[in-house]
Amino acid sequence: MLLLNIARAKRREPIHFTAVSSVAATFNFQVTAGWLGRIADNPGTGSATALTLGASASENPTVTIIPVVGEAFARRMLTPLDGNKILFFAAGGLEPSRVLRLLARSYVDTSGEHRDLILNNPRQKEEYIRFRRIILHIASLSLAEALYGRQIVYEEVVPAPYPTDSSATDVTGTVINALKEGYLWQPPVEGGPPVLTQVVKGRRIVTNYDLSDISNDQRRRLHKETERLPKDSLFFDIRPDGPGGEYPLHGYFLLRSFRQSLHFIARGMSVAPEFDVEKDPRTGPILANPARTLAIQETADEPSDALFKVRHAGSWYWIPNLPEDASDEAAWDQIAFRLVNALYNMTVTDISKQPRPSIAITK
Fold first, then answer.
1. Tens digits of per-residue pLDDT, 101-113?
2. What does the angle CA 194 – CA 199 – CA 200 come to, to the nearest 5 degrees?
3. Helices 258-267 and 71-78 meet at what angle, rounded to 10?
4. What is the pLDDT of residues 63-95, one digit of tens each?
5. What is the pTM of this model?
6. Domain boundaries, given as residue ranges, for the chain
7. Torsional class of 314: left (φ above 0), alpha (ψ -120 to 50), beta (otherwise)
8. CB count in 10 Å sphere of residue 357
9. Residue 6: partners with Cβ closer than 8 Å, 6 or more residues away
10. Crossing angle of helices 258-267/2-10, nearest 10°?
11. Higher pLDDT among residues 134 and 169, named by residue
């Protein structure tokens, strides 16, 4: 189904998804037996008898297919992914360049005075080369286990003076209200006013250093910078004084929706093909660097050894099958297609609770 929709997108046809809502199977087993005999009128001639046995079995499965439609499904197909989901894939062991090449539509460099938008679009050759080199640098840091994907956590400190002539009841009420809001009271220091502190938790970012190693004020500034970013962004802070600092990065990726990701793969087969990009000289070793994010084969003849294949509009679209002991580098396309499948599973809604027209196929 995913291959078919990539083929549809390549031909600028509308994509269409279905799901199997139920499979009902009936199994019939019948046995027949009989005794046939002939008894002659003359006992001398004897009699003839015969035994007959028979058995039959049949299976009649009925598969019910439901089109996956509806506002909720369309919204999830068209809404860009949350940055936390990208970190979820990375935490699951997927190499970052596989994920970001497929799901990131651009990188916004905020290290200078002005924001610099770098598109992940092969038609914009110079920008695409810059984007790929940023991705390769991140992949190199991941390979060296020098990346941290942590949540920003810092303490917000607020002076809390109160009139010295307040009654004990008023002071107690103020303390209780502050505790309910999540603040902690710190005792006065050297005759100063009491201090309120609150633990603030921000979004997750990716760095080449441990966030606990920088000051509370630095974490607060990072929070203020990232809290204004949209949910479909993933912030990176690669500092010069950490691993990979020869190529510092300070900015964020903007992510695609699932539908945009399918169209990116489809466009890469014809109108916007990707091409080879060498890593930056400052980037360390990398695992793999194929030209295409996901290479879907298209042939006129049916493939003899395909992992998945589908025929559409007179052509076969397929992914080659590889031996089980193939390396991750050789199995780049198979792993990338597995990522596409995982994205679809995160996008599809529960169809069992939404009645709609269905198609029943009986064998």
1. 999 999 999 999 8
2. 125
3. 60
4. 666 677 777 778 888 899 998 888 877 776 788
5. 0.80
6. 2-22+64-155+198-362
7. left
8. 7
9. 262, 265, 266, 269, 296, 317
10. 60
11. 134
